[in-house]
Structures are given as structure tokens and as C-alpha cells.
Amino acid sequence: NAGVTQTPKFQVLKTGQSMTLQCAQDMNHEYMSWYRQDPGMGLRLIHYSVGAGITDQGEVPNGYNVSRSTTEDFPLRLLSAAPSQTSVYFCASSYSGGADTFGSGTRLTVV
Amino acid sequence: GIQVEQSPPDLILQEGANSTLRCNFSDSVNNLQWFHQNPWGQLINLFYIPSGTKQNGRLSATTVATERYSLLYISSSQTTDSGVYFCAVYGSNYKLTFGKGTLLTVNP
């Protein structure tokens, strides 16, 4: 089992560019979620999904979009990157709420 | 939303020592988790523990839901225990809220 696969691992964007962070899991988990981790802030929930076709906002959703067309995939889209979105991003999945398994993270820098 | 406070923010131990990490939360929750983030950034789920006590090797956790706190015990600490320990909670809306973590350093 691959678990949760996040790509890319590193990314540098210019202000105003858009991009998609990919997240895929092969454990048939219903619940998937995206977090950002900033120094001294812990992890903060961006968006989450309780199943295919169902998504909801977390604590810090502004500037990000998500969709869940399949159980396996939960991509995170940055619409117009800003320096404030420089962070480490983690995707996670679980059978029924919370976070069982995390991806290895994406370190994003917006210049 | 639910507030999660962890203490202490930093802890330095010698190998072999025991430690207790605390997590306070501001409202009733459906579940509580403890995580370990190693120095390379990987996050590992340690426990789901909405109430009661669980043990896994040298780690154990206790949650007293009625008093809104949880404790993580690490016994006979090893250098590989170093990293950040996070507590997180969620209610009926499944929104996971994290504390800011406890940075544990175990010296040989």
C-alpha cells in the first residue's frame, strides 16, 4: 500500500500564479482533509471531504478550492498565489473522521 | 470554534526519563487524537482517544472528557521520541482542530 501520496514535494510559485497540489490515497478512506503548517501555528484545516462529491470549508479556506470527484483523489487548488500562502501543506485521510494517515507534505514558497 | 491548548511548549529530557504532555480543550468533542511529527516532518497518528486510557508500547494516553483534558505519557524516553507532539480534537462537524504542539528533545 502506498498510503497517502502528495505531489509535488517542493514548489516555488510567483505571486498570482495558480497551481494544484495533488493528493491520492489507496486505502478506500471516506474522509480526506488538507492542512497548512506555519511556524508556531500548529496545523490548520483548509478544506475537508467526508466522501466523494462532498466538501466543506475548514478554518482557513480563503484562496483555496477543492473538489472530490472520486474516493481516491482530493486535489487542492491555489487560485492566485500570494506570499501569505507560503507554507507546508499536508493531506490526510481516515476511515471516519480525524486523520489516520498523512502524506509527506508539500513545501510551497510564493515569491 | 473549539480551542486547544498544549503544555509545556518545549521539553528537554535525558534518555531514559519519563514525561507527561497535557492537552486542554474548550468544549465537548467527538474524538481526540495525539500525533507525533518527527524531525523530518513526517506526521504519525499515535492514538484516537475520546475518553479513557490507551497504551501502545512506551506511550500511553488518558482523556478525561468531563474535565476536557488529555495526557500523553512517554516512559523511558529514547532519542527517536524527539519531535513535536500535537493534540487535535473534532466534534460532530469533523473539523479537526490542532493545538500548537509540544517540542520534545531527548538527549543521549
Description:
The complex is a heterodimer of chains A (111) and B (108). Chain A has 111 residues and is an all-beta fold. Chain A is built from no helices and 11 strands. The N and C termini of chain A lie far apart (36 Å). The model of chain B has no long low-confidence stretch (mean pLDDT 96). In chain B, 0% of the residues lie in helices and 57% in strands. In chain B, strands 2, 4, 5, 9, 10 and 11 form a 6-stranded mixed β-sheet that branches. Chain B has a 5-stranded antiparallel β-sheet with strand order 1-3-8-7-6, with no helix packed on it. Chain B has strands spanning 4-7, 10-14, 19-25, 31-37, 43-48, 52-56, 59-64, 69-74, 83-90, 97-98, 102-107. In chain B, a hairpin with a 4-residue loop joins strand 7 (59-64) and strand 8. Chain B contains no helices and 11 strands. With 108 residues, chain B is an all-beta fold. Classes of the chains: A mainly beta (111), B mainly beta (108). The interface between A and B is medium-sized, with 25 and 23 residues.
Distance between the termini of chain A: 36 Å
Whole-number average pLDDT of chain A?
A: 96
The average pLDDT of chain B is 96
Helix content of chain B: under 10%
What labels would you give this structure?
heterodimer, A: 111 residues, mainly beta, seven-stranded mixed beta sheet, four-stranded antiparallel beta sheet, 11 strands, 0% helix, B: 108 residues, six-stranded mixed beta sheet, five-stranded antiparallel beta sheet
